[in-house]
Every structure is written in structure tokens, then in C-alpha cells.
Amino acid sequence: MKRLLSVILIILLSLSVLPTAGAKNEVSVTYVIKPSFDFGDVGDFHEGFAAVEKGGKWGFVDKRGKVIVPFIYDEVWDFHEGLAKVKKENKWGFIDKTGKVVVPLIFDDVFSFFEGLARVKKGNKWGVTDKTGNEIVPLIYEDVSDFYEGLVAVKKSGKWGVIDKAGKEVVPIVYDGIRFFSEDLLAVNKGGKWGFVDKTGKVVVPIVYDEIDYFLEGIAKVKKKGKWGFIDKTGKVVVPIIYDEIEYNFLEGIAKVKKGGKWGLVDKTGKEVVPLIYDEIGFISEGLAAVAKEGKWGFVDKTGKVVVPLTYDLVGSFCEGLADVKKGRKWGFVDKTGKIVVPIIYEAVAGFSNELAVVKKDGRYGVVDKTGKVVVPFLYDWIGDFYEGLALANKDGKKGYINKEGKVVVPLIYDWVASCFKDGLAIANRGGKWGFVDKTGKEVVPLIYESVREFSEGLAWVKKNGKWGIIANPLKTKNLPVKSK
Predict the structure, then answer these.
(1) Digit-coded pLDDT (tens) for 300-314
(2) Contacts 24+ apart (CB under 8 A), 19-22
(3) Rounded CA gap, 37 and 246, in Å?
(4) Per residue, what are the HEC states of 4-73?
(5) Which residues lie in coiled coils (predicted)?
(6) Which H or E run contains 131?
(7) What's the CA gap between 356 and 425, in Å, rounded?
(8) Which of 330-334's residues contact partners 24+ apart within 8 Å by CB, and which partners?
(9) In this predicted structure, which of 74-88, 239-253, 360-374 has the lowest mean pLDDT?
(10) Averaged over 433-445, what is the pLDDT?
């Protein structure tokens, strides 16, 4: 009896541990705070603090579970750049990590801090404040954007422009619309036409286009008089404005263009490297483009050469050197020479990832390698993508994880398992109870909780008997504030 009391005393004064029932090996969970809080809701830890709710009001606790910010706020957001936005009596402001109000709660709306500044609104006017509450940009604007390299777009009297952190106007407030910077140029609209200005406000692309897109790889698509083309950052037309449609910007140095109902590919000089003879063109992947003609699909390279014949009813895209192709109702894979490397016998396939592809046959899922060899037998109702060597699998309504060899590493006994591991652990549920499993299948946090949250900054919330507590990640307990309460 004396020994038992000593053990209990040690637990209460130092770490609180709880053995896991039913796990592969006996393990312990380390409590920072035992489930004792009657919080209504809890948030993840950010910058060392977690938002918590009690009686309809919000506050913050630190990693030891100590209430640092009292439950006086109607709404709070996570800490960002050392400050958290909070709401009380329909007004917003900011607090620091001691709970001190550093930006008074006088605003009707605020955004979190970015680059040391935050957008704030009072009435129907916007401005910008710093972390001490000083108004860097006065509240005289109808709208403001986030800062970008010291600049912010503002709207006043229905017009847009750009000012710096000192409030100096660098792009005159004369434009009807603005799309913020892409590759250091600002898209502006005036009188229904679009162009680009630089950071000094100088017009570098004339404001003559009906539509424009953002710059990518130094080129932007533009529309004029119903036709599309591309310009460079000096405003020079590099791809003639003659096309009926351009589906997206340049990718791998080429772009899809359509004219007269047919599709082809152009390079950045405007050369039609793939003639406009195709009914459809898919995305470019690994240097090849999927093309369709008269209902059949294949692949061409960037010179227009057909490398996979147009004999398939449907194709996907190349991934890890192979592309999924369909004939009739069956799928398989071809390489870049058009050779069939995985037979076209499957009801469904997913693209290759980490040298493996999930495939379906006779209503069951398995996995094949790049030679077509079945490495995971067709036993499963569903298999997810492999990530860090493991894939989520489902069989007869139960979930677990398998490895690349098909070995079950996390038993398929769970009603729900997270789709991936975070910090080495995955949330799992069985019979309405929650816990965590590791990549070996060990229940390192026993499934005894009514609710759990994902680990963040090494800690996770757990709920038992209606009370919330905090546990440490058993894989990363070093330097964490573990103790009892």
C-alpha cells in the first residue's frame, strides 16, 4: 500500500502517464495537462499559444495550459507575427502574447499582420496600422490590399492607385481597377481597357487590351478585339493576337492555342511548333502533350512529332515517365516511346507516384510497379496514394496502412484514420473513440478519447469525460513542457 501511494505521488508531481490498452507493445502517453478543462472548443497551437473557448467567450493558453489571455473575447484568431486579432462588443483590435491590447479594439474589421502591418477598417473606410497601433496609412480609403515589397494598392473615390508605407502615392489613384503585382508589374484598368505599370507608376504596357492575365515566365496573355496573343514585359507582342482561345499561360516553354476550331502549340517566339490540326489538347507533362483527333488520343512532343499513336479512347498525363491510357473500358500505362508497359486490363488506375500506381481489377484495388508487376494484391476496397512509403487502405469498411511491399503495417481495424501522418502520427478512430497510431501500427496514444486534435508544435488536445487536456507527441517529447496538473 505504501509503495502504491508513492507511485501515485510521483505521477502527480511529475509526469502523468497512461498505459495503452490493446496496442502492439505497452506504451505510455505523456500529459502536459490531464483532461481537466471544461472548454467548449480548442484550437491548434500557433507561436506557442492555443485559442480556447469557455462559456461562449475566447481566450488563449500557453503550452503548459496556463490561461494567458482571459475568456473575454467574442472571437479570436491565431497569433501571427506575435499578435492575435480579437473581437469584443463587435469591435476588433490586436493583443500581444501577454494579453496586452496593443492595437485598440476600435475597428469594424481587421486583417492579420503581414510584413509588420495590418489592414484595418472603421465605418466604411480602410487604412493600415503598425504593431503599436499607429496609423501608417490613414483610414480614408474605400479598400486597401496587403503590402507587397513595401507597397499597397488603395481605392479612393472609386479609383485605384498604389502608395508606399509612408503614404506617398507611387502609382496615381486614377485607375478603375487593379490586379496586384506579378513579376513586378501591376495590371491596371482605365476606361474598360487593361495595361501594366511598374512600381514607379510608369506605363510599360499600353492600356489598350480588353483582357489580360498575369505574367508568367516573362510573358502574359492578352485579348484585343476578340482575339488572344502574348506580350512580353516591354509590351512587345511576341505571339500574334490572332487566336480564338488560349487556355493557359506558357508551361514548359509552350502554350495551347486555338483557331478555327482546332488546337495546336506555340513557343515563346510565336512559332506554331505543333500545327493547329487537333480537336483537343491536354496538359503538357514531361515534355509531351496529349492530343486528340477524330475521337482518338495520343501524345506529341514539342516539335509536333507523334510519339504515342492516336489510338486510345482517353489518356491522362505523363508522370514518372509513364502515362495512363484507355482502350474500351480498360486502362494501362505506356512509356514515352508508346510501348505498353502495364497491360491495358484494369478498370481504373491512378498515376504513378514513388514508382508505384494504384489499379483496380474485378472491383478490388491493388498496386503495380513500372514493369506491370503486381506488388500489392487485389484485396482492398480502396487504396490511397503512397506517401513516405505508406498508403491508406480500406477493406470491408475498416481502414489501416500498407507499405510498398503490400505488408499491412497499421492493422485494418479502424473506422477512420487520417489520410496521412503528421509529425509521425495519424489520428485514428475505433468504436467512437479517438487516439493516435505511429507508422509501425503502435497505438502510441490510446484510443480512449471522445475527441482529439492534430499535433501542432509538438502538442495535441485530447478530450475525456467531457474535459480537455494536452498531451505531448510521444515521438518528440524532448524540450516540451511536460508536467502534471
Answers:
(1) 999 999 999 999 999
(2) 19/446, 20/435, 20/443, 20/444, 20/445, 20/446, 21/446, 21/448, 22/443, 22/446, 22/447
(3) 57
(4) HHHHHHHHHHCCEEEECCCCCCCCEEEEEEEEEECCCEEEEEECCEEEEEECCEEEEEECCCCEEEEEEE
(5) none
(6) none
(7) 23
(8) 331/359, 333/357, 333/370, 333/372, 334/308
(9) 239-253
(10) 97
Chain segment 2-61, per-residue pLDDT in tens: 333 333 323 333 333 333 333 344 456 789 999 999 999 999 999 999 999 999 999 999
Amino acid residing at 247: E
User: 396: buried, middle or exposed (CB in 10 Å: 19+, 13-18, 0-12)?
Assistant: exposed
105 pLDDT band (50/70/90 cuts)? Answer: very high
| DSSP state letter for 80 | B
- Residue 478: pLDDT band by 50, 70, 90 thresholds? low
The cell numbers describing 117, all together, are 502591418
Give the alpha-carbon dihedral of 390, 395, 397, 398, to 10 degrees.
-50
As a whole number, mean pLDDT of residues 262-277 equals 96
Is residue 175 within 8 Å of 158, Cβ to Cβ? no
Reading the block at residue 68, the C-alpha cell is: 494567458
Give the pLDDT of residue 485. 38
pLDDT above 70 coverage of the chain, percent: 92
List the Cα angle 88/90/95 in 5-degree steps: 35
Question: Contacts from 346-354 at CB under 8 Å and sequence distance 24+?
Answer: 349/324, 350/324, 350/385, 351/316, 351/317, 351/319, 351/320, 351/324, 352/319, 352/320, 352/321, 352/322, 353/319, 353/320, 353/385, 353/386, 354/386, 354/387, 354/389, 354/404
Q: What share of the chain is helix, strand, coil (3-state, %, to 5)?
A: 0, 60, 35
Calculate the CA dihedral of residues 311, 316, 317, 320 and round it to 10 degrees.
Answer: -100
Rounded Cα distance, 239 and 235, in Å? 12
Residues counted in the chain: 485
* pLDDT above 90 for 429: yes
Q: How far is Cα 212 from Cα 196, in angstroms, rounded to an integer?
A: 9
What the block records as the C-alpha cell of 100 is 496586452
141 has a pLDDT exceeding 60? yes
CA–CA gap between residue 196 and residue 202 (Å, rounded) = 9
Give the list of residues 6+ apart from residue 369 with CB closer than 8 angstroms, or none: 355, 356, 375
Query: 187: burial class by Cβ within 10 Å (0-12, 13-18, 19+)?
Result: buried
